User: Fold this.
Amino acid sequence: MSASAARRASSRRSKSPAYSGIDPAGYTPEFSWRGNDLYCEGVRLEEIAARAGTPAYVYSAASITGAYRKLNQALGRQPHTICYSVKANSNLSILRLLARLGSGFDIVSAGELFRLQRAGVDAESIVFSGAGKSRDEIREALRARIGLFNVESAAELEILASEASRSGSRAPAAIRVNPDVEAGGHPHISTGRRSHKFGMDWETALPQYLQYRDSRWIDWRGISAHIGSQILSLTPFRRALTRLARHFRELADSGVKLRYLDFGGGLGVRYSNEKALSPANYAKTITRILRPLRCHLLLEPGRSIIAPAGVLLMRVLYTKENRGKKFVIVDAAMNDFIRPALYDAVHPITPAKRPGGNNNGPKIRVDVVGPVCESGDFFAQDWPLERVSSGDLLVLWGAGAYGFVQTSNYNSRVRPTEVLVEGGSFRLIRRRESLSDLIRGE
Ligand code: LLP
Assistant:
């Protein structure tokens, strides 16, 4: 082999995803093999694909409910509200399901507020985060009487106070503090360092709390932080929360008595080889630090509630080989699911049906790619997959969070449909877009 061929081969190898080969249906209990077929709860995935078409997002209601309850129970007697982070998956039916479980909500835009209003959610349970809330969005959220504004800059605080005074109401507020903690994850989803745009450093936040301590328009209710996403170690959580707890006490000593401590989201999940934190250990770490404060804890989990509950179904269009490299071309593309292209995310892909009904068929390394005209349009590279052919149904795992919400119409492709499974039945919770949806508004 020539030196350059060896280099190419080794760079190809290093791109091969590390994958334990464990059947993903084994770590998401609501998805399982029955004989030769994969099921979501009591429904065969092939049946959903036949009725709803592909590509299709499929979510398990039992998985969402289970994840919510597990975290809720782990927090035990610590007064708390789980405010599900709407950005992870904002389908109205999912929001309604979580509201029925007693969840509150974390939003970042007027659009997410609108969705919650449509879902009939109690505004008091909504917290509003984000570094760039516009004046209009602030006004809208004040009018709706949401529960908490997480303010991220002195300039935003001024706008909040002025809008509150205009409307003659007092704005329930917290400052999002940037705790300057390194929190793993992909650089695009890590948010808690001094160098990031999020929150205020403590030296800036404290004077703001004091300046508005006796304000008629700002009602200090809390302090907040969110340090990043897909976090797989307790250390950054412990470090950041210890800092936040110290600030909470310091504020009390200065006469700013708060009720809420909002610790954001970030709890990581298992996609392929990751070892996820257990909600129990995460909750124990948090409640131990908070116990002496006697505060009401808010958490804003997104991914950990919904990522494992969802899969993306897609069909094989063609298989082909280019100079020894094998490709499986599917009917979903980067516009339908962008995490691999955007974050190098590794999501296992398996067939929905196997001759042997298990995960042990012989595998070959393939790139699973979509029809979009870009090399970045891949779902997996050098992925070990059973031999598949045109028409076979494939399952991309862990697609419940940051999946549909990050779709686009790139290449004038219509957005996929979404399906919710509950026990032995399923229903469309969003229809597939039509061609006329593509040009609506043009
Ligand atoms: N709270 C705030 C203020 C946030 O910014 C986020 C996520 C969350 C809560 C929820 O975090 P989670 O529990 O889901 O980690 N699109 C990326 C993830 C971006 C996360 C942005 N912020 C992805 O696909 O990985």
In short: Residues 387 and 428 are 30 Å apart (CA to CA). The first strand starts at residue 31 and ends at 34.
